[in-house]
Amino acid sequence: MASQLDQSDFVDTDYQTAKSGYATTSTHTTAQSHTAAAVNRPPTREELDTRVSEAQLRLEELRRAQEELQRERAALEEARRRRVEFQTGREEMSQHLTRGIALIEEAEFNARRDSEQMTHTLTELRDHMSRVQGINEESWTQETWNTELTRALTVIENARNEWNSARLRWALLNGKTDAPTATPKDDERPFSSDRGFAQWCKMGLALTWPVAVAVLLGFGLMLLRR
Q1: Which pLDDT does position 213 carry in this prediction?
Q2: What's the total number of domains in the chain?
């Protein structure tokens, strides 16, 4: 019967379990003690160097981010300045060009009108010049000279009227050295209703005295013949 006993029968399993638990608890407590000691201890030089390096890296990243933001802000400010310059220049040039176009169009219209009026005046003066130069006294006879004289005086009077009208219209004909521009519209209408009675009398006398003289001469010659 003694041969049937095993060695495991002499092992106290409760004692072994308790011993194993005590060892595990002791090991855990020792690890916690070492961890607490590691937390409470001051940082080592290597840890401080590592922290300084990490802080330096973060500072470099922040500096690069700041430089990027500054470049972006400068680009935005330049874009805003160019936009304002575009809007201001567009409004300014629109106003200048609108005013310039209006002034040039008015000047072109006035120049074209003056040119047309000058061409008409030049044609009339040349026509009256040819008529005045066409008067041939040598062809007058004793029988026709009175009629020819009346006709010649009429030609001269018409030429004088055209000349006075041209002088009223063009200052150049009065000896002025300014550009040959037409006088205001009131002067372009010598028979305007705005003139007074005295002016009408003067104009009537200026226009009719050659005819009156011609009539008086003709009447005097008729009396002499009789």
Answers
A1: 64
A2: 2
Distance of alpha carbon 183 from alpha carbon 160, whole angstroms: 19
Q: CA 65, CA 62: separation in Å to the nearest integer?
A: 5
170 beta partners: 182
62-96 tens-digit pLDDT:
999 999 999 999 999 999 999 999 999 999 999 99
- 161 and 109 fall within a common domain: no
Identify which of 114, 87, 104 has the alpha carbon closest to the alpha carbon of residue 169: 114
Confidence of residue 47 (pLDDT cuts 50, 70, 90): confident
Query: Would you say residue 2 lies in a domain?
Result: no
Q: Give residue 147's domain range.
A: 139-225
DSSP state of 42: P
What is the Cα–Cα distance from 188 to 164, expressed in whole angstroms? 11
**pTM reported for the whole predicted model:** 0.44
* Mean local confidence (pLDDT), 195-200: 58
Map residue 192 onto helix, strand or coil. coil
Please give the C-alpha separations between residue 123 and each of 31, 126, 128, in angstroms, as whole numbers. 127, 5, 9
Whether 160 is covered by a domain: the verdict is yes
pLDDT in tens, 129-168: 999 999 888 888 888 888 999 999 999 999 999 999 988 8
DSSP 190: T
Q: Checking phi first, is residue 192 left (phi over 0); if not, alpha (psi -120 to 50) or beta?
A: beta
211, two tokens: 């005819």
Q: What are the backbone dihedrals phi and psi of residue 42, each rounded to the nearest 5 degrees, phi first?
A: -70, 155
